[in-house]
Amino acid sequence: MNASSSALTLRVIEVRALNPLIKLLRLSADDGVLPGYEAGARVRVQVELAGGLKDWRDYSLINCQPAPGATLAPANYLLAVRKAQDGRGGSLYMHEQVHEGQLLAIEPPQNDFMLHTGAGKTVLLAGGIGVTPMISMAAQRRAEGLPVCLHYAGRSRASMAFLPELQALLGDDLRVHADDEQGGPLAIDAVLNACAPTDHLYVCGPQAMLESVLGQCRERGWAQERVHFELFAAPQATAGDQSFTVELAQSGKSWQVAADQSLMDCLIEHGCDPIFDCKRGECGVCTTTVLEGEIDHRDYYLSAAEKAKGDVMQICVSRAKGARLVLDL
Ligand code: FES
Fold first, then answer.
1. Atom of ligand 1 at shortest distance to CA of 315?
2. Domain for residue 265, yes or no?
């Protein structure tokens, strides 16, 4: 789905710094009508980058109220944005340009991070600003009267957001891990050891945390259906990334993908209209057949067997291992 087809125009009614790096934004509709959502949903916000370039960024919708149906007819949308100084400019725009009274274009809520139905405790594991979808999930589970706990990890308590709200919501079911208090990062294995075989794990945090958790769950042989995840930011370029050539077999066109550019962004820059959704290697929407070349898989969607076979790739995040890829486009 291309992101700009059905945007709402919403007004920013509150901007508040929660700490030096995280800002809260509250949005409302001038006619008072906002689409409902379920815990885990996110909206896509149009941002303006350097040079006036328009782009979209995803932010989870936050609900702290453990009331049944609290998000089905919301009075406003609550977002939290972490400033990324070395990011691509979206969070800087949200922090430095967006102000109360401003109108923003927003794609309606979409949910690829739904809570499971049926048996099993909900175990939430959040790193940094990855806590935002977890707040709504914890509130929904509380409203349902179903078991839930949240492990919330951050560098320090001062860098974390929504601690008072989470404490009120979860009480002893909130476990806060501050690296500076504990002398190091959260022990993922201890969290997994404490899970029962029917528990469902939900992870949202930075790439390194996500990869560690997913790797350990795989090693333990956990069923994929029990492990739910969302990366909170677009994947960053990796040190040592190289430029490579992409050739489109059907049109015969070819371009150079820059070292700091995704293959998808290269195609868009040259007037192609690739289908995408998450742009984080999670949803599978951008799966593309590869006819020649070795793929550097960086997604969380394809299975290990599919990656080993090497005939499809997620063009939003994956790259070439060599100098050239030929796509069936
Ligand atoms: S757009 Fe979701 S995996 Fe590429």
1. 4
2. yes
Report how far ligand 1's centroid is from the alpha carbon of 275 (Å). 9
Give 312 Cα–ligand 1 centroid separation in angstroms: 12
**Of all atoms in ligand 1, which is nearest to the CA of residue 276?**
1
Number of domains, the chain: 3
Centre of ligand 1 to C-alpha 113, Å, is 14
Residue nearest to atom 3 of ligand 1 (CA): 281
pLDDT tens digits for 187-232? 999 999 999 999 999 999 988 898 899 989 989 999 989 999 987 6
| Residue finishing a domain among 231, 255, 277 | 231
Q: How far apart are CA 299 and CA 196, in angstroms?
A: 28
Overall average pLDDT of the 147-162 stretch: 97
- Return the H-helix or E-strand segment holding 45: strand 42-48
Question: What's the pLDDT tens digit per position in 220-266?
Answer: 999 989 999 987 666 666 778 899 999 999 999 999 999 989 999 99
- Domain harbouring 293, CATH code: 3.10.20.30
Domain that holds residue 290: 244-327
102-142 pLDDT tens trace? 999 999 999 989 999 989 999 999 999 999 999 999 999 99
In a domain, 40, yes or no: yes
Angle CA 229–19–54, to nearest 5: 65
- Please tell me whether residues 135 and 106 are part of one structural domain: no
CA–CA gap between residue 80 and residue 96 (Å, rounded) = 14
How many other β-carbons are positioned within 10 Å of the β-carbon of residue 174? 18
231, 259, 293 - which closes a domain: 231
CA atoms of 141 and 51, how far apart (whole Å): 44
